[in-house]
Amino acid sequence: MQPGGYRTRVAHAPLNSDVSFRWNDRVKPKNVILLAIAIVSMIEGAVGQYFYPAKDVPPSTLYLVVVFSFLIFAWYRIDTMQLGYPRTLTLNIGIVALHFLVLPYYFFQSRGVKKGFVAVGLYVLMLLGSVLISSTAAILTSNILQS
Predict the structure, then answer these.
(1) Residues 30-59: pLDDT tens digits?
(2) Are 15 and 82 a contacting pair, CB within 8 Å?
């Protein structure tokens, strides 16, 4: 470790290696992606309410769904590398196009039944959290605009 608490990264470090900062000892790439998903969810709710307050599904949602799909695929890519699970073209396309159906299949195939159920449960919690964050951002934006 270098003086000041920073650890240098080497070019051949695997994607699941830890990155160390002075304020935090362990930041993993999959956790950073989950944080990015939460931020995209917040942006989706706020932008939708600010620019399209009368619409149930604003046009901005389409763009953010593409970003959301990219983040899900990035998480899936890192996860397959960590588990050593082979990625196929069909599975890759399925993750991008229909992640809510294909990810549970991937979880059971890559982890087995018990860990697959746990992973699907965590995935459902992530999706519900995303909806909650988006809805909360929309409500807060609406309240700020009315005041």
Answers:
(1) 999 999 999 999 999 999 999 988 788 888
(2) yes
